[in-house]
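Q: A reviewer asked whether we had any structural model of the full assembly, not just the individual parts. We don't, so I'm hoping you can provide one. Inputs are below.
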Amino acid sequence: MKPTLADTDARQGILDRINTKHVDVPPLPDVDVDRVIQFDEPIDKFVEMLAMVGGQAHQVDSQGDVRAVLEEIEVFRTATRIVSLAPESIAGTIDATQIEDPHDLSTVDWTIARGEFMVAENGSIWIDGDTLPHRVLLFIAQYLAIVVPRSQIVSNMHQAYERIENFSARFGVFVSGPSKTADIEQSLVLGAHGCRKLQVFIVGDL
Amino acid sequence: MLPIVQHPAAAKEFVNDPNRSRWHDQALWFVRSKRDKQAASLPEWEYLRETASGIKTHTIANLSHYLQQFERNATARGAVVHWARDAEHHNEIVLRILRDHKTKRIVKSKSMLTEECGLNHYLEDNGIDVVDTDLGERIVQLRGETPSHIVLPAIHIKKEEVGDTFHKHLGTDEGASDPKYLAEAARGHLRDKFLAGEIGITGVNFAIAETGGLVVCTNEGNADLGTSLPRVHIACMGIEKLLPRQRDLGVFTRLLARSATGQPITSYTSHFNGPRDENSELHIVLVDNGRSRLRESETFRAAMHCIRCGACMNTCPVYRRSGGHSYRATVPGPIGSVLSPTRDQNSYKSLPYACSLCGSCSDVCPVKIPLHHQLLAWRGELVGKKLLPVSKRLSMRCASYLFRFPALFRLVGRVGRFALRVLPRWATHNRLNVWTIARELPEPPKESFHQWHRRHRNH
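A: Here is a predicted structure for the entire assembly that you could use as a starting point for your response.
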C-alpha cells in the first residue's frame, strides 16, 4: 500500500508565518505534586468514583473468586461468547488471538480485560494496548469486565502519567465507567456504543 | 463573502418561544452546576487552571518548534502527517486519502474542526457517505441541521423531536420519546454503520509533541469503535491542539471533562501512538485555517488556548437563552464570538455584542482565556473600523462628548431626571425605542450622586 504523500508547500507556509512572529513567554510550568490532592484511602475513593461514573466495583481476595461474582450476573450466565484476557481469573470461550479480522468479534458478549492500575480521583483504569489482541475488544463487547491488582493504584492523573511516562504500546486507554451518552435531553443512558455495563474486579493476590 | 449575522435577529425565534428558551437555559445551567461541583471537589482547581494556561501560553509561543517535533515523532511512529493551510485544503487532503483507498463509507466521530471546514458537505458532494457516530451529531445530521453546542450538539432538540426524527429514519415507534429506547435504537443503527465503515475519521483533543501521539476523549466510545475496525484512521486537528509533553495531559485530562460536563473524566481517554499495526494507516491532518494569523495578535492570541470544553457556553446568560444557532457560527457562545470575527470581521461583527460583559465565561474557562476582555476589545476594534451601524456609532460619540464636559454632563443629568418624571408613557414606549419593548424606565432619583456628595462631604 502506497502512503499518501504530504504537501510540503503548505507546511513551509504555515511554519514561516509562525516564525515571523516571535513571542516571549515564561518557561513551561511543571505541576508541584505537593499541591495536588492525594487520598489516604485511595481504594475507597476509587470505588466511590467508579459508582459515580456508572461502573461497579468488586473487591475479591483472589483471582479465583472472580467467576463466582460474575456467575451472579444474569447477562453473564446466559452469555456464550466470552473473550478473556485474564485466563487466571476466568476462562473465555473465544480465543481472540486466533482471529485476524476485528470485524469477526462483532458478536462478542463479554470481554474480560486486564487493567494495569486504577486512578482514585476519577474511577478510571489504565489499559495497555499491548494486552489486547484486538483493541476493538474493549469497545465492541456488550459487557466489559476489568481485572486489576489491588496494589496498583494512584491518587490522581499526574501520578498516572508519571507511571506511563515511557509506555511504548501503539494504544492505551483510561476507561472510566461504561460507555454513555446524555445527548437526548441530558438524560444519562448507559451503553451508548461501547459496553453497556462495566464490572471492575479489584483483586488482592494479583 | 459571508452573509452578515445580526445576532438579535438570528436569536429572535428562539427567544420568542419562552418555553423552549427557558428549557434550554435550565438544561445548560444544570450542566454548569455539575461543573461547579467537580471544580469545588479539587482544592487545587485554580492552580490547575493557572498551570494549564501557562502550558498553553508556552506552547503557542513556541508552536513552530512543537509542530516540527510532533511531526518528527509521529512520522517515526508510522503516521503520515499532512499540513493544510485552510479549510478547503484540509477537505482536499481528506478526499485524496479516501480516493487513494477507493472508499465510500466513512464513520466519523466528533470533530469541531471538520465542522469548521465543512467536511461533511464537501465529501457528500463528492459521492462519499459520511456517518456521524456521536449520538448528538447523528441526530443533527439526520435532521439536516448543524450542532448548536460544541460538546452537546443536540442540546437544542427535545426528545419528542428526536423521536420523530428516529421514527422517520430509523423506524422507531411513532411517538416514542424515551431517551433509553431512542439511544438503544441508535446503538443498533450505528453498530451496522461501524461494521460497514471503511475509514474512520476522528478529531483530536490533544497531540503530544514529545511522543508524536494523539489523545481522543469520548463518553460514547465512538471514536474507538470507529478506528479499531477499519484499517485507516484519519485524525484532523487544528495546530493549536499541541501539548509539549505527555505528562502535561495530567493537567488537561483533569480539567477537560470537569469543565465540559461535570464528569471527573470522560469514559474513554484514548491514546493513539501511530497506526494500529503494520498493515494499518494513520493520517494526521494539521490545519491552520487562520490560526497562525490569530497567533500574531497580542490581544486575541490567548483564544488559541481553547480546549473546546464548552464551559463558557454553559454559563453564558446570552447563549443559554438564545441558543447556539443564533451565532450562525461553528463555535457559538463567548469563545465563538471571539473567534468568529477573526475569520470575517464584517460578517460576525454583531457577536461581540451578544454579551453582557458579566465575565462569567472568563471565570469558568479552564485555560483562563480572558474572554470578556477580548469581547470588549473586539468592540473597540469594530468601532474603529466603522463596522457598526450609524445609530450605535453616533450614540457612542455623543456619550464620549458628554463625559468630557462635566458641566454639560450635570445639565443633561438634570434634564434627564426631570424628563423621566414628566414625560408621558407614549413618549418613551413607542416603536422607535426598541430598548423599552420589554423594559420599564427607572424611577428618577431626587438628586444626582454629585449633589448628594456635595451635601455630605463635610460630615
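A: Points you may want to mention in the reply: Chain B has three domains: 1-23+310-397, 42-133+198-292, 405-456. Chain B has a mean pLDDT of 95.
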